[in-house]
Amino acid sequence: MAVKRIPQATFLSSIRTLSVFFLVAGTLALASCSSSRPQMSAEEQVSVAYKKAAELYEKKEYENAAAALEPQLFASRATPLEDDVLFLLAQSYYASEQYLLSSDMYDRLLQQVPSSPYREASRYMLAKSYEQLSPGYELDQEYTRKAIGAYSEYLAEYGVKDPASSARDLDTYSELLKIDPSSASYQRGYEAAKLAMARQDSVKHASAAIPVLHNKLGAATYSIATQYVKLKKYKAAAIYFEKVVRNYGDTPWMKKAQAGLVDVLVKRGKWFDAQRALDAYLQSYPEDLEEMKGTREVIMQNFSNS
Predict the structure, then answer these.
(1) Which residue ranges run through the membrane (predicted)?
(2) Exposed, middle or buried, 260 (CB in 10 Å: 0-12/13-18/19+)?
(3) How far apart are CA 204 and CA 151, in angstroms?
(4) Global pTM exceeds 0.90
């Protein structure tokens, strides 16, 4: 009996049909499984990302922690984790020396969540970020000024009284709580004293940083004045020497600026102004009277002839 052969074209067509069938069936099965799995809400996704970032931060993988949080900035808005995300991201940027980004995140937190428990730390770290961005005195001093402003605001809001007084307050409220542990007033006083003691290091740093940064501004202004002297633009030089005298009298640049002002006024032939500037200089530094004798004689001779 002859065996009936199936045409090759028909056979291949059947194989293709079966392949398509199994592919469609598999796709439907996968879709069914995934649709039966509950989808995470946006807030849950933020929570998972935050937990992962916190673990990376603890491992000192700061750049990876930042990378895990960056996509959550928008999703975390108006959620309970908004300030957590912003603060940890800012801390990650700061720890990885990305100070421009850290300053932006600390500032965002202060603007977007002003009542956040991270407010105090963010104010302080914003100032520290600006301090890190402050360049040498010969460059633009925008961030030096921002650092001074931010530290000043921090001290105005969180500056502590005398450390010894804070320590006494802590001891006092600690003893009072032993007498009446349920007193809400004593508890508030104890927590306030404890917080004041804890912030002493940051307050000490802020208080020390401001004069250093202020001195840098004085150096920058004095440097500009000397550059104008080199260019023989004495009028402009006088303006910047006067700025040092007016704004940075408590820095080491004061004496040099006063002497420089006398010199450029003499060069400009402004004898009356030069005499006044020299009198002011000698009032501050009477020990230099002999050294400035020649300058005084030149000024007086020309002043009397004018």
Answers:
(1) none
(2) buried
(3) 11
(4) no
